Amino acid sequence: MQNSDAIWDAIDGKRVRFTELSDAVWGTPEICYTEVRSAEAHRAALEAEGFRVTSGLAGIPTAVMGEAGSGGPLIAILGEYDALPGLSQEAGVTERREVVAGGHGHGCGHNMLGAASLLAATALKDHLAKNGLAGRVRYYGCPAEEGGAAKTFLVRAGLFDGVDAAVSWHPAGFTEVNRTPSLANTRLDFRFTGRAAHAAAAPHLGRSALDAVELMNVGVNYMREHMTSDARVHYAIIDAGGVAPNVVQAKAAVRYSIRALELADMLVLVERVKNIARGAALMTETAVAFEFVSAVSNLLANPPLEEALHAEALRLGPVPFDDADRAFAARIRESFAEGDIANAYRRVGKPLRTDEPLCSEILSFEHGGIPMLGSTDVGDVSWAVPTVQLNGASYAIGTPDHSWQLVAQGKAPAAHKALVYAAKVMAATALRIATDEDLRRRARADHAARLAASPYVSPIPDGVAPPIGRMG
Ligand SMILES: [Zn+2]
Predict the structure, then answer these.
(1) How far is CA 378 from CA 96, 189, 331, in A?
(2) How buried is 217 (Cβ within 10 angstroms: 0-12 exposed, 13-18 middle, 19+ buried)?
């Protein structure tokens, strides 16, 4: 049995229309800055709920914001709705079955993420109005979390100025406060230009851009030994210069993702990789141009807000999954690769259990797991304002991230319960922040101390626009 509360009862009263919103977004999977229908669904829901709506934030057509209330503290609730390429998948089945061959799919659960956040914002808005409380709530509908760093652009455009705190969540295998560090991450394209020539008849006249790409990659692979162990560098050759081996490649390009645990370290690492590219160009007598793609900062923790969110989750209790949810989760787990389930337990520092298809608890605050080091554009919001996130149990424990199995569970009854649950934890936490001045003061002080130790520099260079239409 879950505890009750006025704001939670209000959320239960609206659960149907928001689970429908989640399912509608699940059914129109759109990737990286192309989320036209998903953003429109969110915009329409904001309008229907009486928010003051602004579309096209920071020059991004698929970013939308709704604001409500007046005076008092300003609380941001962050939502997302972008999907992933290549993950088209039927719902509710336990085998790989595409809906559209080669199509997109919600392999990170952002359909649930956005709907739950909008539900939380709606409940908070209604609660403040009904009780005559001062305060404003803003729902940020953020596109392109997967590789497009939309929130970093929103932060750079000043859209979080004046916000007191930001609250969000992410679907997960276990319910816990998200206290996992994330990596600062820059994506850069390196485009080399050389000179074409007949590779047999006049090789001495050619200057190979593909050689430059290969030498750059070799150089970076030697650099790996001399970076901190939490840094990550990976690359994909996005232009090999053509398919003809008998033509010296005049053009070639490689995309790099350069990550480190701290923003400042990442910025240094980016310069080192650029120097290697310059060296490769010098060796091959080619020219290199750097083309910025996107960047995000690491997440800043905020213990006062994390403790508040944890307390609200404990007060609510775990996600109320039922036997039918557990039975479906158990069946889909049969398709997992060996190690997926053990890895999930390792991440949260719990001994492996094979008889627990869905999480039935709230993990302890200090669980000592081995974090999974990914990156998120929530990172930049956390440098702008004190930020806190819930991980809400939404699918079978061990479900791999960005997998067809996650898409298949995306509109199951368990996913609906999870999104209502997440909305309740976020709304209650946001209400506490809005009404507890001491909590806000402590959150602000913690945030200020972290920024004093390491000031924020936007990882996106001046003048760079969001990579709308450029993400392949
Ligand atoms: Zn995600």
Answers:
(1) 31, 23, 33
(2) middle
Å from CA of 145 to ligand 1 middle: 7
Tokens of 259: 């990550």
The residue written with tokens 């915009």 in the block is 43
Extract the tokens encoding 59. 């020059």
Separation of 144 CA from ligand 1 center, angstroms? 10
Cα–Cα distance for residue pair 214/193, rounded to 1 Å: 13
Q: If you search the block for the tokens 């001062």, which residue do you land on?
A: 134
Question: DSSP assignment of 285-313, as one string?
Answer: T-EEEEEEEEEEPPPPP-HHHHHHHHHHH
The DSSP result for 313-336, as a single string, is HHHH-S----HHHHHHHHHHHTTS
Distance CA(106)–CA(108), nearest Å, equals 6
Enter the tokens of residue 9.
Answer: 């009862």
CA distances from 448 to 103, 179, 311, 444 (A): 44, 18, 23, 6
CB 261 within 8 A of CB 228: yes
Residue matched to tokens 């001045």? 437
> How much is the pLDDT for 3?
62
Q: Coil, strand, or helix at residue 256? A: strand
pLDDT tens-digit profile of 408-464? Answer: 999 999 999 999 999 999 999 999 999 999 999 999 999 999 999 999 999 998 889
- Measure the CA–CA gap between 402 and 13, rounded to whole angstroms: 31
Q: Helix %, strand %, coil % for the chain, to 5?
A: 40, 20, 40
- H-helix or E-strand containing 196? none
How far does the centroid of ligand 1 lie from the alpha carbon of residue 110, in Å? 6
Which parts of 194-279 are beta strand (E)? 232-239, 251-260
Distance 378 CA to ligand 1 centre (A): 10
| Distance of CA 299 from the midpoint of ligand 1 (Å) | 14
Q: How many CB atoms lie within 10 A of CB 211?
A: 21
Beta-bridged to residue 259, according to DSSP, are: 185, 232
Band (51; pLDDT cuts 50, 70, 90): very high
Give the 3-state secondary structure of residue 442: helix
The C-alpha angle 9, 4, 432, rounded to 5 degrees, equals: 85
**What value does the mean pLDDT take over residues 187-201?**
97
Rounded CA-CA distance 425/2 in Å is 12
Collapsed DSSP state (helix, strand, coil) of residue 161: coil
Place of tokens 């590219």: 277
